[in-house]
Design a protein that fits this description.
The protein is 61% helix and 15% strand. It has 165 residues and is α+β, with helices and mostly antiparallel strands. Helix 4 runs antiparallel to helix 5 (94-108) and helix 7 runs antiparallel to helix 8. The termini are far apart.
Length: 165
């Protein structure tokens, strides 16, 4: 059974970071925070009801930036897990940091990248996941991520134009 924790930690530069994370227990929480190169200071488990009512989401801009940076790292030949870990360690959003940590753990446990994205349908829709599946089959992750980033940018521009009216 997983538990949602609120935590306070210190990063390598001494900055205090707060966030929430889903973990199996307090030891698992400490290991997850440690993998993000942070030292756990304190934590508190959230109630079960807040875990099930909590909608995990990120902004469209965060998704565009994540996809763009993954594309650049893939085209540079950086291994996928290393790319996701680097991005996880550099993002400001605690939600995105938690999602990226979970994706890394799933991949390291033997899941495909596309399978790990399916755990977050409010962030990665069916089209996004399907395109990543195609990339895994064809070996063209950089190109597919480029297409995804362009598609999401176009959707964002369209949404902004519609919003004006």
């Amino acid at each position: 059974m997983t538990i949602s924790f609120k935590y306070k930690a210190m990063d390598s530069s001494g900055k205090i970071v707060t966030g929430s994370m889903i973990a199996n227990n307090d030891v698992d929480l400490e290991l997850r925070v440690d993998k993000m190169n942070m030292d756990l200071i304190s934590f508190k488990s959230e109630s079960k009801s807040s875990l099930f009512t909590k909608k995990i989401s990120i902004t469209r801009t965060e998704l565009i930036n994540l996809t763009f940076h993954l594309e650049q790292l893939a085209k540079a030949g950086v291994p996928l897990v290393n790319s996701i870990e680097d991005l996880r360690d550099s993002v400001e959003s605690s939600v995105l940091r938690e999602v990226l940590s979970s994706i890394v753990e799933a991949i390291q446990a033997g899941s495909k990248f596309s399978e790990s994205l399916k755990d977050y349908p409010t962030i990665f829709d069916e089209v996004y996941v399907s395109m990543i599946e195609v990339a895994e089959k064809t070996g063209k992750l950089g190109e597919v991520l480029h297409d995804l980033a362009e598609m999401i940018r176009w959707q964002d521009e369209l949404f902004q134009k519609v919003k004006k009216y």
